[in-house]
Amino acid sequence: MSASASAWTADANEALSLSLVRAPEDKASLWSREVYEGFHPTFTYPIFGEEEKVYGYKDLAIELKFASGSLAQYLNVQYSERLPASSAVDEIEDTLAKFIPEGYYTDEKRFLERVEHDAANFKPFGEKIYSYSRTAMPVSKGKNVAIPQVLSPEDQETVDYEVYHASIWAPIRRPGVAHFKSTWKTPGFREFHRRMQLFVLLYIEGGSYISEDEETWEFVVLYEKRRRRSSPDVATYHFVGYSTLFPFYCFPERVRLRISQFLILPPYQQDGHGSALYTAIYQHVLAQPRIAELTVEDPAEAFEDLRDRNDLKMLLANEKFMREGFGPEAVSSNGGKVGGVGNGRTRRGVKHRTMRAGAGKMGPPAERTWLEKWRTELKIAGRQFHRLIEMLILKHMDPADERGNRAYRLQVKERLYRFNFEILMQLDKQERQQKLEETFQSVVADYKRILGHVH
């Protein structure tokens, strides 16, 4: 690119600024660390092309603002200079208009009036399926942030978060619980989805819009529910993130529910909200007799880690499962490990504290019938469940137990061999054994990394 062309070219990811705008009274309730305006997309290639560049402007600034609850949109394009119109100059508003619904604002005063109106009137669509509370006071961020479920409702700095499920399916009816059924035909829901789906393009690599012609899509949306300091009896809703789910037929009369898209917006990341949303989805799946299991479509590495951590914590907290798997001494009062697995024999002949032989179903090797019973009950997809079992055995296994380590190695390699059968069969025997050993070592190293984040 020539120097003259470069002067007129902007990085689309830097030029595009996103904001979740709150009404003035809601902004007054925020702490200084809470910044929900002026963040940037991770990807813009679905909109501006593979190079993610915008040509024809100097000092380009593209503002796309959303009402923090209803996601009503405001678009403003500013620049200091623009080249004369030509086929090479990007028409920014025309380009963005192909990806956002009609009716967006270009008058900021009118947009702020809409924000004020929606703050008082917007309510989530669908059925509330999960909630938790956090303190609004400054805390450390990170992937292992704990999510306290109960805080004092009298504390003005307690912030509630609620997860809502919307689909064409009627929820299970439970006494004393309000029930809703939200579909594309629910007033306002189709329009709301059209406004929020832009985030899929901006934050999920390879993400795309779903077809509105497919009416079986389900949606799980996470909101912050914030009380105003000036009026504690007034609570307003603010969009945090969402996931799309798609059901597939499962013989004879149930479905497998697949997580297709999953995102938490940048201002809310590293605060445990992704884990909370995943937990809400999983708990919803467990409560629905029509759903046989939860699966994930082509997960990104970060999501796969999130899924692994939360699934492991769930299994470790299940005392019946842990007791059956590792024996009666395997569970402490808080669900943690007391002993290990194996026969206690070590390379140096030293007796380590381990479970007695045959105390649990985990082995290794794990008892397959028992595994399948629990996998079905917990509604976890096959490959994921067996990976979790391998991690749990590794976590509890005495590294000095030769017999246990050999049985574990064979158990993991058998699964890897079946999973990669077609590729491995293209190699000769020696290469196949070498590749299987390399894969095993890589898998175990990754298991140890994941287990390092599970406490």
TrEMBL record:
Positions of the record's site feature: Interaction with histone H4 N-terminus: 217
Swiss-Prot/TrEMBL GO biological process terms: subtelomeric heterochromatin formation
SUPFAM superfamilies with a match to the protein in the record: Acyl-CoA N-acyltransferases (Nat) (SSF55729)
Subcellular location: Cytoplasm; Nucleus
Pfam families assigned to the protein according to its UniProt record, in alphabetical order: HAT1_C_fung, Hat1_N
Biased composition, class Basic residues, residue ranges: 345-355
Positions of region (Disordered): 332-364
Regions annotated as coiled coil: none
Assigned EC number: 2.3.1.48
Binding, acetyl-CoA: 262-264, 269-275, 309
One GO CC term, this protein: cytoplasm
Top-tier EC class: transferase
Keyword annotations: Acyltransferase, Cytoplasm, Nucleus, Transferase
Subunit structure and binding partners: Component of the HAT-B complex composed of at least HAT1 and HAT2. The HAT-B complex binds to histone H4 tail.
PANTHER family listed in its UniProt record: HISTONE ACETYLTRANSFERASE TYPE B CATALYTIC SUBUNIT (PTHR12046)
Protein task: Catalytic component of the histone acetylase B (HAT-B) complex. Has intrinsic substrate specificity that modifies lysine in recognition sequence GXGKXG. Involved in DNA double-strand break repair.
Protein name: Histone acetyltransferase type B catalytic subunit
Organism: Dichomitus squalens
